[in-house]
Predict the structure.
Amino acid sequence: MTLHRIDYRRGDALGAVFLVAIAIGLPFIVADRFYLNLLFLILLYGGLASAWNLLGGYAGQFSLGHTAFFGIGAYSSTLLYTMAGVSPWLGALGGMAISMALAFLISYPVFRLRGVFFAMATIAVGETVRIVLLWYRRIADIPYGISIDYKPGFARMIFSEPRSYALMAGIFLLVVVAVCYAVSRSRAGYYLQALRDNEDAAQAVGIDLRRYKLIAFLISAAFTSLGGTLMAQYVLYIEPSTVFNTTISIDLALMSILGGIGTLWGPLLGAAVTMPLQEFLRDWLGSAGAGAHLVVYGALLVLIVMLLPQGVVGAWKDWSAKRRRHGGEHARG
């Protein structure tokens, strides 16, 4: 894969410093366990949403089946660790390879579809992987739920200090955003955006649709799988109904839409809003508020679509551009 020259812009270095301060600095500042848990979720889902955004935002391929890659990452590392003693760091690489292979295999049929049909096909892929796992575990005698023994150690990716998990999620976020930045500011990124805006026109000028969609799909699948491994090592328990839950895919899409789909900062902002909202609603309402965050999500989504169709980041960019234009007109006047 050749990304060609990266188009650096004014303010990129400042944004990078700010993001590093958030991802690396906050884990050392926050002391409360509840807020460290919340920080871990924000950073992890910020990275996952950014990975989804590379395919769903920049390439315009609205996937709702990323839970398949998330679950593959969780199960690959967990099974290799619990049954063969393989370090989750290596197991994560195995999960990423399997997820990329699956993305490659399904790319040809699903990329022939567009819009809602593409989204429905990806949902079917996620459900198919879950059903195949449920069927296969009976043959391989794999328990429905798998617990990971709590034995802290870096090689086992298990830590006694919650701050270490938050720091690990922060590094994950930085790596994903760095890759998304490199792709989005390269020729490949501009081709992806051209495909998103008008696929027929992009094909007419000679852009290889399948090649560039596949690049985004493979990278997105690999990072989503890695996020699944990190979550499994954090909760130390997995089962099909949790790691292969379609809600994960919906959350990633929703975070990107709320923050600004097809933007670098949009998924991060979306995660910073939705994850605290979800956790605080669960904490305040308890079992009586099960699913209440989804109602609020829905209301927020309706408001964003009606008032800010380009998301918060997109609306901010439009407002800034209009302000600069007005300032230029006043200066000329």
About this structure: The radius of gyration is 20 Å. The chain has 14 helices and two strands. The CA atoms of residues 137 and 143 lie 7 Å apart. The beta strands are 146-147, 237-238.
